[in-house]
Amino acid sequence: MTDQTKDKSFFGHPKGLQTLFMTEMWERMSYYGMRGILVLFMTALLQEGGLGLTTITATAIYGLYTSSVYFMGLPGGWIADRLIGGKKAIWYGGIVIMCVHIVLAIPNESSFFVGLILVALGTGLLKPNITAVVGQLYGSEDERRDAGYAIYYMGINIGSLIGYFVCGYLMESAGWHYAFGAAAVGMGLGLIQFYITHRSLPEVSDKPSVAISDSARKKSWSIIGMFLVALAVVTALTLAGTISIDAVSLAEKTAITLSALFIIYFAFIYFFGNLDATEKKGMWALLLICIASACFWSGFEQAGSSLNLFARDYTDRFISTFEIPTAWFQSVNSFFIIVLTPFFAAFWVKLGKRMVTPGYGLKTAFGLIIMGSGFIVMVFAAHIAAGGGKSAAFFLILTYFLHTVGELCLSPIALSAVSKLSPRRYMGQMMGLFIFTYSIGSIIAGLLAGGFDPDNVSEMPSLFQFIATFSIGVGAIVLLIGMFSRKWEQEVVERKEVLEEVRDEK
């Protein structure tokens, strides 16, 4: 096993980063490749090879799926920490994802819905643990850590670019199930290279990070087994028609349940976590950021639903005689992420040198407002569609550009805020709680997209106007409160710096 602190074989970073970079790139290729065509497949007519679902049902299912992917990261991380270790979690999660995409390539409605459930389980096992293993490549004082995550994040976006282009092209040129099959091939390539190079990963990823007794381990496996059996029974009964599930109603109840769980857990830590006054101020600042995050993703995740449908039905996609595949428009976000990330990283550094750095709350507010402004662009595009025409591709490209700028203002900043402002003894739990905001935002996004009615074009401007007004309005409120919470953030950060200096002296 190579000494990770001396290993600089991958662009000055440990060789294990190459293994994780490639694995995540191919996993994201499969995930985003399917995400880009999911709603299109469900709403396509039966004679076109689709499922023929209504928009409101398809987008509700989309919201449930994307929300579940994020939510399942919590038990996925728990399984790795206590039962199998990060390396095995990545491997088994990848195998599940690949096998499920193979099943999805089979033209069968029942296998499609079973596949969605299993993809969420596999992704929940792989995604949080591969991110955690990246951090294990570096020592606590290794200055390469942030740059390593930046390289890893680049792999995510390269993978999504490949997924959108390959699956989007195959969808329209060869058929839906060839596109799903391509996602399986992508995950398979990731698994092959992971198997060949996994020895470059740190030994700490081989075993669980939390020691538990044999009895606790057996009990944990029993609980997991009972959950899987219950899930299989409910799925079978649903497919047999014994149980009837209304996707829209289920999505609404899920949104309420996730929001309630977030509030209860947050309140439990705040009131019963033995926090001092400074830590409670940090919790209030984090609550503001979590609200901004949930609202942000409820708008941003329109990319795979309402904006995807708009691209298919109401956008002029022709360049000369070539028609741009619908899913390709979603790749614009990944492209802008790759191009703009270095500029934003340099911008925040220069801003900090020239003036007082904006607080986390202010930065996330800017992200939410900028994302909301992208829907103002879509209001104009929707008016063109309502008038009987097709809007230029420029409208969608500009919208995705603004969404990307908003993402770069909010997403990495919010993650940094959680690591800086959380009470140290609740760091892991607060990061898990923050992931809840992705799930809440995704499920709300699916419900909002249900208002996109292809048969009632005149209502489209109102949908985009509502999302824009809501996002910008919440952003403005976060901005105002953020001016006060910035002082709380500074108190928390300064206190942590003092405590770290004391520990270093000892």
UniProtKB/TrEMBL annotation:
<keyword id="KW-0653">Protein transport</keyword>
<keyword id="KW-1003">Cell membrane</keyword>
<feature type="transmembrane region" description="Helical">
    <location>
        <begin position="112"/>
        <end position="138"/>
    </location>
</feature>
<feature type="transmembrane region" description="Helical">
    <location>
        <begin position="255"/>
        <end position="272"/>
    </location>
</feature>
<feature type="transmembrane region" description="Helical">
    <location>
        <begin position="430"/>
        <end position="452"/>
    </location>
</feature>
<keyword id="KW-0472">Membrane</keyword>
<dbReference type="Pfam" id="PF00854">
    <property type="entry name" value="PTR2"/>
</dbReference>
<feature type="transmembrane region" description="Helical">
    <location>
        <begin position="327"/>
        <end position="349"/>
    </location>
</feature>
<comment type="similarity">
    <text>Belongs to the major facilitator superfamily. Proton-dependent oligopeptide transporter (POT/PTR) (TC 2.A.17) family.</text>
</comment>
<dbReference type="InterPro" id="IPR000109">
    <property type="entry name" value="POT_fam"/>
</dbReference>
<feature type="transmembrane region" description="Helical">
    <location>
        <begin position="223"/>
        <end position="243"/>
    </location>
</feature>
<keyword id="KW-0571">Peptide transport</keyword>
<protein>
    <submittedName>
        <fullName>Peptide MFS transporter</fullName>
    </submittedName>
</protein>
<dbReference type="InterPro" id="IPR036259">
    <property type="entry name" value="MFS_trans_sf"/>
</dbReference>
<feature type="transmembrane region" description="Helical">
    <location>
        <begin position="361"/>
        <end position="386"/>
    </location>
</feature>
<feature type="domain" description="Major facilitator superfamily (MFS) profile">
    <location>
        <begin position="19"/>
        <end position="486"/>
    </location>
</feature>
<feature type="transmembrane region" description="Helical">
    <location>
        <begin position="464"/>
        <end position="485"/>
    </location>
</feature>
<dbReference type="InterPro" id="IPR018456">
    <property type="entry name" value="PTR2_symporter_CS"/>
</dbReference>
<keyword id="KW-1133">Transmembrane helix</keyword>
<dbReference type="InterPro" id="IPR005279">
    <property type="entry name" value="Dipep/tripep_permease"/>
</dbReference>
<feature type="transmembrane region" description="Helical">
    <location>
        <begin position="59"/>
        <end position="80"/>
    </location>
</feature>
<feature type="transmembrane region" description="Helical">
    <location>
        <begin position="284"/>
        <end position="300"/>
    </location>
</feature>
<feature type="transmembrane region" description="Helical">
    <location>
        <begin position="392"/>
        <end position="418"/>
    </location>
</feature>
<feature type="transmembrane region" description="Helical">
    <location>
        <begin position="150"/>
        <end position="171"/>
    </location>
</feature>
<feature type="transmembrane region" description="Helical">
    <location>
        <begin position="29"/>
        <end position="47"/>
    </location>
</feature>
<keyword id="KW-0813">Transport</keyword>
<dbReference type="InterPro" id="IPR020846">
    <property type="entry name" value="MFS_dom"/>
</dbReference>
<dbReference type="InterPro" id="IPR050171">
    <property type="entry name" value="MFS_Transporters"/>
</dbReference>
<feature type="transmembrane region" description="Helical">
    <location>
        <begin position="89"/>
        <end position="106"/>
    </location>
</feature>
<keyword id="KW-0812">Transmembrane</keyword>
<feature type="transmembrane region" description="Helical">
    <location>
        <begin position="177"/>
        <end position="197"/>
    </location>
</feature>
